[in-house]
Structure formats: structure tokens, C-alpha cells
Amino acid sequence: MDFLVIGSSLGCLLYMLATLAVVSRLFHPTGPNNRLVLSLAFSAILIHTALLFSQQTLNFNLPNVVSLVSLTITIVVTLVALKSKVNLLLPVVYGFTGLWQLVTIFLPPIDSIQLVSDKFILLSHISLALVAYSILIIATLFAFQVTYINVKLKSKNIAAVAHLPPLMQVEKQLFIILTLGTVILLISEIIGFIFLEGFLAKENAHKTVLSLLALTIYSVILWGHFVKGWRGHRVLVLMLSASGLLTLAYFGSRFVKEFIL
């Protein structure tokens, strides 16, 4: 077996063990064994990173982009877990990233899509877009956690949230992350409009329109929260809508081109 198969298999195993370590003690009074969970997660992250950057050239085909985004999200959430209780997010993040490591083993060969590194503006636009996407997906996961805690508190089920941080703390973190992601996404769009030729061309129109719609919804959520006091299910539904549009913008056409056509 080659390095990719061995590394992806081992990475998947470690991510899944980390997921199991969280889920098996999710509602335990003392919560999961953080030392065990984080040790497994950091080991998986090291292998994942080595796999991703073992290539000698930048490769922006769909599997690599998904792997890069999932790695970014995993690193950020794991670092947050060092100081904050994000037990509800960890199984989702580790589970998805681990499964994707497994999926990459069975994907058919895909042509390499290289990006010339001296195209600084284009590289900046793509990098900011991927960073923004990762941050905004993390914000969406936080929105799920806020909704879960809120529902359990309203139903007087205190035991279900005893292992989780206070509702107001998680909500504050959510809107800090959402603000950061929205600002970075806005900068990425501005760079595209001003400096990139073909940003509004027919072949890129769907991506531009969908990403602008997502940016608008994220901005409306921030306005609604800070001006109108929006929170709870309304924020979650809008976050899911915006994240869905952004996912379609970044990955929809790539999936069709690389796997269907």
C-alpha cells in the first residue's frame, strides 16, 4: 500500500477513536476524557497535515480543497477545545474529517488543478475565501450548540447541559466567530471584484451570485442580532441557509465537473 492509503487509513482510525471517546462520555457528569480526546485528535491532525502537504505542488482539485477546509476547521475547533467545552462540536468535526479521510482512498484519480503561486492576487482571494468558509462553518456549528442548550434549558433539562458552557458564553462566541468570518468573506469578494478578471464572467456567475447571497444573509444575521436582538432558531435557520449557499458556490460546480462530467 502507498503512503496515501496507509496515512488516510490511520488518520481515519484516529479521528474515529477521538469521536468515540467524546460520544461515549458525552453525557457523563465529568464529560469526556479531554487528554485522551485531544491526544488522538492532534495525532490525526499531524497525519492529515502530512498527507495534504506531501505534494510538491499546490493542487486545488475538489478532494484536496475539502480536505484542506476540514483540516482547518478541525485544527481551530481542537484549539478551542483546549480552553472551552465544545463537546457537541467535536464528534461532528472529527467524524466528518475522519470519514473524508476514508473516502479519499476510494475516489477515482482526478486531474491535478494547479495554481501558479506567483499569482498573488488570485491566491489571496482563494485563501481568504477558504478561511472565511471554514470560520463560517464553525459559526454554524456553534449555532447548533446554542440552539441545543437553549432548548434543553427551556425544557428544564439541566442535566443535559451540565457538561456544556453557559448559553450566553456560547452565544457570544458564535457572533464573534460569525463577525470574523463575514468580514473575511467580504474582503475576499472585494478583492475578486476589483482585481480579478472574469470574476463576473458567465462561467463564474453562479459562484459569485451564490457567495454574495450568502454574504448578504450573514450580514443580515449580524444586523438582526445586534440591532433587533435576534437569536435562537431564527439565527440557526438563516445560518444554515447562508452556509448551504456558500457550500454550493464553492463546491457545487466543482463536484459536477470533477465527478459527473
Task: Please provide a written account of the structure.
By secondary structure, the chain is mainly alpha-helical. Helices cover 74% and strands 0% of the residues. The protein has two domains: 1-114; 116-261, no CATH class. Helix 3 (62-81) packs across helix 5 and helix 6 runs antiparallel to helix 7 (205-228).
Task: Spell out the key features of this protein.
261 residues, mainly alpha, 2 domains, 0% strand
Q: Radius of gyration in whole Å, from Cα?
A: 19 Å
Basic shape: flat
Number of helices: 8
Q: Say how many strands there are.
A: 0
Mean pLDDT: 84
How helical, in percent, are the residues? over 70%
Largest sheet: none
Note the beta-strand portion: under 5%
Structural class: mainly alpha
Number of domains: 2
Order of helices and strands: HHHHHHHH
Terminal Cα span: 29 Å
**Which consecutive residue ranges, at least 5 long each, have pLDDT under 50?**
none
Oligomer: single chain
